[in-house]
Specification:
By secondary structure, the protein is an alpha+beta fold. The protein is about 35% helix and about 15% strand. Strands 1-2-3 form a three-stranded antiparallel sheet, with helices on one face. It comes from Prauserella halophila.
């Protein structure tokens, strides 16, 4: 699936993670221009959808930071293939 044109996987090494974001979150982006981006944050007991522009912007900035810190998509594919072969 990592070679499909609409999917990008980037692995963030553990030593580089932890400061750009805390916990699981998702940014939902839609191809229809009239639909706004929506954030989704998971908590221990539930998940919350966020639609305030400040919240969505914060999630977008965290994703941008993670993408900069992550391995490239090619390198990430190599790491995943190696981990799969080693298990």
């Amino acid at each position: 699936m990592t070679e499909m044109p609409h999917i990008t996987v980037q692995v963030v090494p553990y030593e580089r993670s932890g400061y750009a974001a805390e916990g699981a979150f998702t940014l939902l982006r839609f191809s229809e221009p009239e639909l706004p981006n929506i954030g989704y944050v998971e908590h221990i007991a539930a998940g919350v959808y966020l639609d305030r522009s400040d919240d969505v912007e914060l999630i977008g900035r965290a994703l941008d930071r993670l993408a900069v810190d992550a391995e490239t998509p090619d390198r990430s594919r190599q790491l995943l293939a190696k981990a799969r072969a080693d298990s």
